[in-house]
Amino acid sequence: MNYLTKMKGGGKCPPRVKVGYIAWSWLGALLGIAAVAGLHYGWLADRGLVMIIGSFGASAVLIYGATNSPLAQPRNLVGGHLVSALVGVACYQLLPEQPALASALAVATAIALMQLTGTLHPPGGATALIAVIGGEEIHALGFLYALVPAASGALIMLLVALLVNNLAPGRKYPEYW
């Protein structure tokens, strides 16, 4: 197949999502992000800790809106954020004066390690990047960033996903652990 021909696509678009599924996705995302943000703004922010990071928004899309995707399963959610956070912090600490290189190495290495460990979760790439570009509040956490917010926030969102996604008739989460 010609290289440029591959870019034409050719597959069919997936069917539209039913309104009931959309409503459950909305409720899950609302409760999951509210739980993490509530902890952040209500308790941890005053203590110099961070509980909510931008990559959790993308995780919410997967675990509440694409519940049967392999990328949305618990091991991918928690493992992907944890592995990526560790990689991101290490890259920042090794190359603090070279943020462009540290950013690229963090994301690329996080992808490779997530693939190697069977925990590929696309928002993990953002978690690794945030460890590098997140600013002093994030950098001050050091490797604690992998636990708070990355792993603990993902676990909170997972708990909400388990509760909400299984309330809906015909909806099941997770597909596997």
From TrEMBL:
The keyword Transmembrane applies. Residues 15-174 form the HPP transmembrane region domain. Signal peptide: none annotated. Keywords: Membrane, Transmembrane, Transmembrane helix. InterPro entries: HPP, TM_HPP. Pfam families: TM_HPP (PF04982). The chain crosses the membrane at residues 21-43, 49-66, 78-95, 141-164. The keyword Transmembrane applies. This is HPP family protein. It comes from Desulfurivibrio alkaliphilus. The lineage of its organism: Bacteria, Pseudomonadati, Thermodesulfobacteriota, Desulfobulbia, Desulfobulbales.
